[in-house]
Each structure stands twice: as structure tokens, then as C-alpha cells.
């Protein structure tokens, strides 16, 4: 598994500053090259075409291009100081996420690194997240991080699995990073709760409460699932509850440096109703999260 080309979307804010810093350190470790991508939402600053005299629109676009190049320059200098191969690209459009995805479909990358604002509640409901949209539909694995991340560490990697082929792919990525960085891995499976109607006494219970031996059976299956990775320091763990809550809790309590998991790629009504555990973790986790996309489901 190769990590030769990394894409880093930037908007010159604090979150993308952190993403660039993280990507530079990661690229040094992986001996990878970086492309910085800025998507200029021209509708935010461009006046209606009829407001321009002949030639003024072209001049305005040229001036805007030069300004963006100047803003990208400090990032490029940082890459050169690290002796990395680094370049940049500028796209225009009215949807940042769609343009990033378009670029990923047109160009071959091994990894995307981008910042996320971690919006929650009503603000997230109305504004959504560019990072989450990219996570949902990107054909390339996406590593997201919040602005609170201070450094690029990979001593302890957490892989959240559900025993699917997709989570096996997530474990493959974790193993690749572990071999490069000498990391230890914890493989976590969360036993989801059973939801009951509101008139039941407590509303929901962990399945493990009804199946005392279930935890032991899960641990046995985890050992089998990880059997092919004898060259890596791997431990297993089981939790019971809502998957996103338990993943974030385990991450905070156990000094995890990177979470790796599969994302379901749901779209349309199914995504609206079901949501995505991976996206909830991306939104809430203060630890970087690497998502490996599953097959898109569009029903």
C-alpha cells in the first residue's frame, strides 16, 4: 500500500493551517508529495457580470488568481523547507466539496488531509460540513483533523471495525501506517444497543446485558480477524453502546493518536435518516480520523 501523493484542500483558515502542518509532517514520514488545493467560491466576491466594463471581469479574475497564489506561497515555502515536493492548484466553483471531489475523480491521490470545524447542533444541521461531504463521497481515503491537533503522532492507532470487508480494509490501512511508523494498534468493536419503544422501562439496553458470553465471543472473533498481522503490536477491545460515542470515549481515555474506520457512503434519503457513524466521529473526535470509503449506497 503506497502513500505517494497527498491532497490538502486549504481555505487559509485556522483549520486548514493545521491540516497543512500535519500533512507536511506526515509527508516527511511517508516520503510523499503534496498538492494544495484551493477552491475559490467566486460567487462570494464577484459582482454580476453586467456591473463590469469590457475587460474588467477578466482583470478581476486575474487579480483574484494572483491574490490566491500569494496566499498559497507561505504553505509552498513551508514544504520546500521540509525538502518536500509540493505544488498547488486553484479551482473556481459554487460548491467547495463538489470541486474537491471533482479533482479527486480527475487526479490520482493516495490520501486527502483536511481540517474540519467540528460543527454540532443547529449550526451543523444548516451548514453541514465540507469535510463530511468529502468523507462521504471521496474515492480516496480522507484524514480529517480539528484545529486542536498539535502534532502528527502515530504511536497508537485505533481501528473501529464491524467485521465487514470494509472494516478489514480499514485494518489494512492501519497496518500499513503501523509498519511505517512503528505504531501499536487497538482494534475495537462496539456492541450496539437495542432500541425499544418509549413505553419500555429504560428505552434501550446493551445487547451484552442479555448475552453474557457475547463479549467473549466478540473478542475471539477479533483475534481471528487480526490473525494475519502477527508482525504488528495489536490489541483488541470491546465496548457496548452507541458506536460513535464509544469510539470517541475510547480515543480520549486511551491516548489514541489516529482513528481509522470505514464510512458507508450513504446518500440521499438513506443518509438523512441513518446518518453515518464515521461522520459523527469525524465531527466530534479531537483526534485525527482516517476514513476509508465503502461502496456508495443510493437507494
Overview of this protein structure:
With 299 residues, the protein is an alpha/beta fold. The protein is built from eleven helices and twelve strands. It has helices spanning 14-30, 56-81, 96-106, 121-127, 130-137, 165-181, 207-210, 214-225, 243-253, 268-274, 277-284; strands at residues 5-9, 33-40, 86-92, 111-115, 142-145, 156-160, 184-191, 193-195, 204-206, 234-240, 258-263, 289-293. The chain has a ten-stranded mixed beta sheet with strand order 3-2-1-4-5-12-11-6-7-10, with helices on both faces. Helix 3 (96-106) packs parallel to helix 5 (130-137) and helix 9 runs parallel beside helix 11 (277-284). It starts with a strand and ends in a 6-residue tail after the last strand. Residues 119-128, 265-275 and 295-299 have low confidence and may be disordered.
Summary keywords:
299 residues; alpha/beta; Rossmann fold; 2 domains; 10-stranded mixed beta sheet; two-stranded antiparallel sheet; 12 strands; 43% helix; 22% strand; disordered C terminus
- Give the strand order, joined by hyphens, for the main sheet: 3-2-1-4-5-12-11-6-7-10
* Structural class designation: alpha/beta
> Which CATH first-tier class of the largest domain would you pick?
Alpha Beta
Total strand count, please?
12
Question: Which term fits the overall shape?
Answer: elongated
Helical content (DSSP H or I, runs of 4+): 40-55%
Q: Could you tell me the mean pLDDT?
A: 83
Looking at this structure, what is the CATH superfamily of the largest domain? HUPs
Tally of separate helices: 11
**Main beta sheet strand tally, sense and closure:** 10 strands, mixed
Q: For the terminal residues, how far apart are their CA atoms?
A: 32 Å
CATH architecture tag of the largest domain: 3-Layer(aba) Sandwich
Amino acid at each position: 500500500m503506497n502513500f505517494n501523493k497527498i491532497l490538502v484542500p486549504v481555505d487559509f483558515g485556522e483549520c486548514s493551517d493545521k491540516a497543512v502542518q500535519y500533512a507536511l509532517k506526515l509527508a516527511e514520514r511517508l516520503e510523499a508529495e503534496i498538492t494544495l488545493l484551493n477552491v475559490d467560491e467566486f460567487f462570494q466576491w464577484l459582482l454580476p457580470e453586467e456591473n463590469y466594463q469590457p475587460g474588467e471581469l477578466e482583470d478581476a479574475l486575474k487579480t483574484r488568481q494572483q491574490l490566491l497564489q500569494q496566499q498559497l506561497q507561505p504553505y509552498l515555502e513551508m514544504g520546500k523547507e521540509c525538502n518536500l515536493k509540493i505544488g498547488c492548484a486553484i479551482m473556481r466553483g459554487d460548491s467547495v466539496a463538489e470541486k474537491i471531489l471533482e479533482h479527486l475523480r480527475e487526479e490520482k491521490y493516495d490520501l486527502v488531509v483536511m481540517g474540519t470545524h467540528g460543527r454540532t447542533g443547529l449550526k451543523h444541521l444548516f451548514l453541514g460540513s465540507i469535510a463530511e461531504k468529502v468523507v462521504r463521497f471521496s474515492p480516496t481515503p480522507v484524514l480529517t483533523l480539528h484545529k486542536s491537533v498539535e502534532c502528527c503522532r502515530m504511536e497508537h492507532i485505533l481501528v473501529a471495525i464491524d467485521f465487514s470487508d470494509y472494516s478489514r480494509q480499514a485494518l489494512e490501512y492501519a497496518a500499513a501506517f503501523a509498519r511505517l511508523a512503528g505504531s501499536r494498534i487497538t482494534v475495537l468493536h462496539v456492541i450496539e444497543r437495542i432500541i425499544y419503544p418509549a413505553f419500555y422501562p429504560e428505552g434501550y439496553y446493551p445487547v451484552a446485558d442479555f448475552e453474557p458470553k457475547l463479549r467473549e465471543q466478540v473478542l475471539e472473533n477479533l483475534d481471528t480477524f487480526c490473525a494475519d498481522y502477527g508482525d504488528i503490536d495489536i490489541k483488541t477491545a470491546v465496548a457496548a453502546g452507541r458506536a460513535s460515542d464509544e469510539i470517541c470515549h475510547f480515543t480520549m481515555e486511551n491516548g489514541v493518536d489516529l482513528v481509522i474506520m470505514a464510512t458507508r457512503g450513504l446518500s440521499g434519503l438513506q443518509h438523512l435518516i441513518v446518518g453515518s457513524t464515521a461522520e459523527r466521529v469525524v465531527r466530534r473526535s479531537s483526534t485525527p480520523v482516517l476514513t476509508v470509503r465503502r461502496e456508495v449506497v443510493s437507494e
